Amino acid sequence: MTKLKIVAVTNCPAGIAHTYMVAEALEQKAKSLGYEIHVETQGASGVEDKLTSADIAKADYVILALGKGMTDEDKARFDNKKVVELPVSEALKHIETIFDNIDEKAKLFNASKVKLGDSAVAQDGIMSHLMAGVSAALPFVIGGGLLVAIGSMMVQFGMPDTALANGVQPSLAWVVQQIGNLGFTFMIPIMGAYIAMSIGDKPAFAPAFIATYLANDSTLLGTESGAGFLGAIVLGLSIGYFVKYFKKIKLPKSIASLMGYLIIPFVTLTIFGLLTYYLIGPFMAFIMKNMLLFLNNMPPSAKIAGGFLVGCMLAFDMGGPVNKTAWFFGFSLLSSHVYTWYGIVGVVTLLPPMAAAIASWIRPSMFSKAEKDSSVSAFIVGMTVATEPAIPFALAAPLPMIAANTLAGGITGSLSMAFGLERLAPGIGIFDPLIGLMKPWYWFYLVLAIGLFLNVTFILVFKGAWLKHKAKKQLEKLQAAGNDESASTEINAKVGVEASTETDTSASVKHTIN
Fold first, then answer.
1. Which has the closest alpha carbon to 323: 335, 334, 309, 343?
2. What is the largest CA-CA distance in the chain?
3. In whole angstroms, what is the distance from residue 243 CA to residue 399 CA?
4. Per-residue pLDDT band at 113 (split at 50, 70, 90)
5. Is 312 among the catalytic positions?
6. Is residue 73 pLDDT above 80, yes or no?
7. Cα 56 from chain centroid (whole Å)
8. Residue 146: CB atoms within 10 Å
9. What is the dihedral of CA 244, 250, 252, 255, to 10 degrees?
10. What is the mean pLDDT of the segment spanning 400-412?
11. Does position 446 have pLDDT exceeding 90, yes or no?
12. What's the confidence (pLDDT) of residue 194?
């Protein structure tokens, strides 16, 4: 067996779950094949285990499992290497076959001429750029949200909440909250800037940041409200694509070196600064104001129905595009101080992995050995609002698991909206109420308990019926082959759900992955 040397990079929009799950899966699979692998993770904590030029030079192949894309500058280090690029979610699904026929999958990458792979559309899609903005905004919201929560708790414990005024020294609680509010203030400009940079690279960053900040300064614009996340999306995408095509203009060599840091930023900021002030900013502020008015004045029945839809979306594909769309909607409203939709995120995303783990403890015979072995880690990681640990359980039995998660997520989303759960910022799952990020705490734990009960019940019922149906189909095939006696023995062992189904479930996993 040839001992291949492979390097890989993994990243995902949030940089929390998929990034590290895929890295671990790649390492384990490569080790089982006797390959040498070095994986760089670009997660929420930054770049870890960074590939050196020597690592890349020695590698036979490069695997890029990306969820938030990669800048041209970052990709350039893989010049003249055989590269396999695919979405990070696909890497997790196809981990068993990712190294099969790798030479046929790989494409020779030329940094100056070639776009990698057939997944360019997926990686350069609008959602990928939006999630790059969200990933950059997360630290601002998390840090700011925690400080706002701490300042609020200080006031609740009796500390003064005195604002700065002429001759008046502000209180510590007030200062802490104001620092936290800066996180929400800069969240939107950072989002717009990183959306633009994801498309047009570094020259797009400064113009997009300034224009988006301008669009959200209602005092400067003379509007009732800022453009909010809608302004960040419109300006980020517009400036990003403007810069992307601006860079293609051929200038004399004597001034070409000025393009990136002088000409492009200056021209782009001038054009979009004026457009933002006179047109884009006021128009998007008008749209944002009316959207918030609509959301805040929805009748209770419509809010509950909306909660059901968002809950279903969050639980459906466990970190996939449908989940990210619903998550992005709730997250983006935080800067406008609308917290109920993100409250749904805070409870529903806990359910799939925790429920799958609990179900495997209640009825272990319904799950494979691999699923049972991973149940504890799935439960612990799931407690911190990372839905991805539920993916292996769903791959083993897609129809019953996804149906159970989606139905339970929808009902829980409706309950979250009915009880008025609010989440101020991304946090640490079930501990959010303890640090002031989720309120009211008592309704949160009640809704979570109901959601877990429903999700576990649905898993046991749906998967039990699914296993019986599979066993019945297998019996029919065996009977058709004339093996009546052996068929009867096998069906008696499998239809009783108490019998071990590890082999059956493992076969389902392989079939699903392939």
1. 309
2. 96
3. 44
4. very low
5. no
6. no
7. 28
8. 20
9. -10
10. 95
11. yes
12. 93
CA distance 276 to 188: 15
Q: Residue type at 384?
A: T
The whole-number pLDDT of residue 266 equals 94
The per-residue DSSP string of 419-443 comes to: TT-EE-S---GGGGGGGTSEESHHH
* Rounded CA separation 393/378 (Å): 10
* CA separation for the pair 135, 502 (Å, rounded): 38
Q: Residue 95 CA to chain centroid, in angstroms? A: 19
Statement: the pTM of the whole predicted model exceeds 0.70: no
Q: In whole angstroms, give the CA distance from residue 265 to residue 96.
A: 46
List the structure tokens of 340: 């109920």
Q: Cα(136)–Cα(339) distance, rounded to whole angstroms?
A: 20
Structure tokens at 483: 């093996």
Place of tokens 């890349």: 56
More confident residue, 365 or 117: 365
Cβ-contact 214, 271 below 8 angstroms: no
CA distance readout (Å), 263 to 192, 213, 251, 352? 20, 21, 11, 50
**Phi (first) and psi of residue 41, to 5 degrees:** -105, 130
Secondary structure class of 214 (helix, strand, coil): helix
- E strand map for 82-189: 82-87, 107-108
Both structure tokens of 295 = 């959301």
> Exactly one of 7, 8, 9, 12 is catalytic; which is it?
12
- Read off the pLDDT of residues 281-335 as tens digits, 9 standing for 90 and up: 999 999 988 988 888 888 999 999 999 999 999 999 887 778 888 888 898 888 8
Q: Is the dihedral of CA 104, 110, 111, 112 positive or negative?
A: negative
Q: Which two tokens stand for residue 368?
A: 């494979």
Instruction: In whole angstroms, give the CA distance from residue 86 to residue 117.
Output: 8
User: How many Cβ atoms sit within 10 Å of the Cβ of residue 248?
Assistant: 6
Whether residue 214 contacts residue 276, with contact meaning beta carbons closer than 8 Å, is answered with yes
